[in-house]
Amino acid sequence: MKVDSLYLSPVKLQNTMVNSNNATNTDEQNLKFSDVLSNVLSDVNQLQLKANHSSVDLAAGKVQDISEAVIATEKATIALQLTMQVRNKIVDAYQEVMRMQV
Q1: CA angle, residues 89, 92, 97, in degrees to nearest 5
Q2: What distance separates the 2 farthest-apart alpha carbons in the chain?
Q3: If we measure between CA atoms, which residue out of 102, 55, 50, 100 comes closest to residue 79?
Q4: Single pTM value for the model
């Protein structure tokens, strides 16, 4: 039985190449926050769809190993919880900025 790695991290850290000016130059640094956010939400949605599909397959008797369905469901649940916590932190940060006196 093959065990896939759990992908939950929205930020992928890779080795960066340093040019002659000692500045880092990667494509990931050029991404906008909205692009990163939409990519992460898309990944979470894919995990939710996969969990739903595995649940339907389990109910239909197509899945031999129940642990596959449970693992897919747990991956989706954890990814959604992580996404909600990040959203809560972003909202808290926004509210804090709005309370600042200028």
Answers
A1: 125
A2: 62
A3: 50
A4: 0.64
